Amino acid sequence: MGTEQKVAVITGASQGIGAALVNAYRDRNYRVVATARSIKPSNDDGVLSVPGDIADPRTAERVIAEAMAQFGRIDTLVNNAGIFIAKPFTQYSEADFAGALGINLAGFFRITQLAIAEMEKQGSGHVVQVTTSLIDHAIDGVPSVLASLTKGGLNAATKSLAIEYAKRGIRVNAVSPGIIKTPMHAAEAHAALGALHPVGHMGEIKDIVDAILYLEGAGFVTGEILHVDGGQSAGH
Fold it and tell me: What is the pTM of this model?
């Protein structure tokens, strides 16, 4: 198979934002490597599904190895996989802590290492993290320490990586969402969750997809934390 067509690797790709990103990148004629624990095989020859837990370094190794074997290149990595555990700080368990670090941080670390190593060989690439605006603007009644601890680390790593690789043709950015209508939020909670944003409503999956696609084409943008949060990070 030829290697001239661009390739995007997307984590957390089985539902919600991740599944929408698979379709969006295919619409842009990218081939896509989609990974998640529950990912199903695709009928699309341009989509390679690789099941696995991103917290396990072997999953990252398998994803990148299979991407290179099948498609021969990696142009974009979207680190979309993540978990959010809303509990009072003193009620977090060791399992909660380990789970958040494993998926939100360790999962990012290994697959990003491996993807950037391949991008360096071709002298170009783009890495995008999906984080959260709760890092910048905590909300009373929405306990979020583990999200801030882990996704905040991704915001910081985004800027560090952007500078480290700026002269090597690799851009690194993040999208920082507010609360988005995804399968993790029950419909009956939408009104209350929407009220947490200055604009008065939740965001849509398309809002995050559009932001990532903007960054994909923004060749002069790197090290950016793009807030897509209905004004949440600006204040209330």
Answer: 0.95
